[in-house]
Write a structure and sequence with these properties.
This protein is α/β, with parallel strands linked by helices and 258 residues long. The protein is 42% helix and 15% strand.
Length: 258
């Protein structure tokens, strides 16, 4: 059976869990070679072994922090020749920290969100863009959020970072216009991943309440949409897409059966 990503190399950030991990699995199943980047080396290694066993996928791992440009630059210089011809970039690395009013927020949390969600996306894009420009083709997918369309109570800085991602996606569409490089902004609503555990600093019980009483999206739901976007004919671009669970109407209105 033909696989729609045969011959393509995809770099996925935040690949050790959630949407990034799910995208790695969906892409591997469809024949892509993978460059997987995340901070947690041990989680990357587990994913590597799973994908090798299931799909015999060719994979290169980068254990790095997207907030550290010097580290990224060094790691990119070490990518083996057979993995350098990247065609697809999934800028997925991102996180939320805390859920407080601005005047109660943590500066440390703010810095981590801004540095990861905005600067990390810029750093990785800057390193991959020359590869895409040289061959005048490719696809960049930025994972933003419904939070980048509507601010919700106590979401302040996280929402601001995702508004920034959406703005950067629009800027990339303009900047890459005239090339054959496509840009897609993906805004997921409620997806059950480690997102809420990270937001609540490891409070698993509090995190579970976010997803009770309805069926949230899974990482694979979002990954399947990403696959659809990147496998359309090259003259077709989905610039912006919003994905929510059916139970979710807006950032703050969710039908829960509790």
């Amino acid at each position: 059976m033909a696989r729609c990503l045969d011959g393509k190399i995809a770099l996925i950030t935040g690949a050790s869990s959630g949407i990034g991990e799910a995208t790695a699995k969906v892409f591997a199943e469809n024949g892509a070679k993978l460059v997987l980047l995340a901070r947690r080396k041990e989680r990357l290694q587990i994913l590597y072994e799973e994908l090798q066993q299931k799909f015999n996928t060719q994979i290169y791992l980068i254990a790095a922090d997207v907030r550290n440009y010097d580290q990224l630059e060094r790691e990119f210089s070490l990518i083996p020749e057979e993995f350098k011809d990247i065609s697809i970039l999934i800028n997925n690395a991102g996180l939320a920290r805390g859920l407080e009013k601005i005047y109660e927020g943590s500066v440390k949390d703010w810095d981590e969100m801004i540095d990861t969600n905005i600067k990390g996306l810029l750093y990785v894009t800057k390193l991959v863009a020359p590869i895409l420009l040289q061959k005048n083709s490719g696809h960049i997918v930025n994972i933003a959020s419904l939070a980048g369309r509507a601010v919700y109570p106590n979401g302040n800085v996280y929402c601001a970072t995702k508004y920034a991602v959406k703005a950067l996606s629009e800027a990339m569409i303009i900047d890459f216009n005239g090339t054959n490089i496509r840009i897609t902004n993906v805004d997921p609503g409620l997806v059950e991943t480690e997102f809420s555990i990270v937001r609540f600093h490891g409070d698993a019980e509090r995190a579970k309440t976010v997803y009770k009483g309805y069926k949230p999206l899974t990482g694979k739901d979002v990954a399947d949409v990403i696959l659809f976007c990147v496998t359309l004919p090259e003259h077709v671009t989905i610039q912006d897409i919003l994905i929510t669970p059916t139970a979710q109407a807006t950032a703050t209105i969710v039908s829960k059966k509790i």
